[in-house]
């Protein structure tokens, strides 16, 4: 599955699933653009490390995915976009009648609106290049709900709907648009939920992982960022040229329940 000569932009990719996907795309030969809203030496070092390890071009571009103009600027600044992975995402847990408005707005902006802005700018570039792959990172929460995560569930259902729509709009072009729906993956986003959950249920870390998080995942194992990366590489391959407008669950059976 060679992606030599392709340029991949992965939003929100200085940690977790985004970094894992960027790594696997680079392993497959793609030049990669990493992104986040920070601009630390470590962010650029991540890109240099990928370039060195896989012999591809890799760079880091700072852009805040909560701001439409910066989403659009990211794609324009990259200058090419054969593969777009809309991955940036945040989470907040709260009953809906106590949900802070600014958290609702930020979750919808970063997890959903950003994909609209990046896709709108990337599509003409893909058309000009005669090839394109859009991979949206949704969630098991894009297919099923969960209490106290209204904004996240709404944004992830929204991105699944947008994925299908973009797929229909590009169906007769050499461009595909699909969503990956991960279950639990032990990334900084999930790590950040553990202390509150420990306090809420009076449980230790291992108990929270087993009884609260992996309880919903029939495999009883976390998916890994490498597995998510491998799924993204597959969706970018020629073997997946007729796969468009679909969701691929990487959730240990969660949504089969
Ligand atoms: P993470 O916290 O490790 O990564 C999130 C990334 O988004 C980071 O690189 C962060 O810098 C970036 N980001 C956050 N706000 C941003 C902003 N305003 N602008 C640009 N970048 C920003 O979390 P993760 O678990 O790797 O999550 C990645 C994606 O996977 C998210 O969309 C998340 O909803 C989804 N997801 C994660 C899980 C899981 O269990 N970890 C499950 C399902 C879906």
TrEMBL record:
Enzyme class: oxidoreductase
Keywords of the record: Oxidoreductase
Protein name as it appears in the record: 3-hydroxybutyrate dehydrogenase
Keyword Oxidoreductase carried by entry: yes
Pfam families (UniProt xref): adh_short_C2
PANTHER family, sorted: 3-OXOACYL-(ACYL-CARRIER-PROTEIN) REDUCTASE (PTHR42879), 3-OXOACYL-[ACYL-CARRIER-PROTEIN] REDUCTASE FABG (PTHR42879:SF2)
Keyword Transferase: no
TM regions (residue ranges): none
Family the entry assigns: Belongs to the short-chain dehydrogenases/reductases (SDR) family.
Taxonomic lineage of the native organism: Bacteria, Pseudomonadati, Pseudomonadota, Alphaproteobacteria, Rhodobacterales
InterPro entries: 3-OHbutyrate_DH (IPR011294), NAD(P)-bd_dom_sf (IPR036291), Sc_DH/Rdtase_CS (IPR020904), SDR (IPR050259), SDR_fam (IPR002347)
């Amino acid at each position: 599955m060679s992606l030599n000569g392709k340029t991949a932009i992965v939003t929100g990719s200085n940690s977790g699933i985004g970094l894992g996907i960027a790594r696997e795309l680079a392993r497959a030969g793609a030049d990669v653009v990493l992104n986040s809203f920070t601009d630390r030496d470590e962010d650029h070092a991540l890109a240099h490390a990928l370039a060195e390890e896989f012999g591809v071009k890799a760079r880091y571009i700072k852009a805040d995915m909560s701001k439409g103009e910066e989403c659009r600027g990211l794609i324009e600044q990259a200058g090419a976009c054969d593969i777009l992975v809309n991955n940036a995402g945040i989470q907040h847990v709260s009953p809906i009648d106590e949900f802070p408005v600014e958290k609702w707005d930020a979750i919808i902006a970063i997890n959903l609106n950003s994909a609209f802005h990046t896709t709108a700018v990337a599509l003409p570039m893909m058309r000009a290049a005669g090839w394109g792959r859009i991979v949206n990172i949704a969630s098991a929460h894009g297919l099923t709900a969960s209490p106290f995560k209204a904004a996240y569930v709404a944004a992830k259902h929204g991105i699944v709907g947008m994925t299908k729509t973009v797929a229909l709009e590009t169906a007769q072009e050499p461009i595909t648009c699909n969503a990956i729906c991960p279950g639990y993956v032990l990334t900084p986003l999930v790590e950040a939920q553990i202390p509150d959950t420990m306090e809420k249920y009076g449980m230790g870390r291992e108990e929270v992982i087993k009884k609260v998080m992996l309880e919903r995942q029939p495999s009883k194992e976390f998916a890994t960022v490498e597995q998510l990366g491998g799924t993204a590489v597959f969706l970018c391959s020629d073997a997946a040229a007729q796969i468009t407008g679909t969701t691929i669950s990487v959730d240990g059976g969660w949504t089969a329940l």
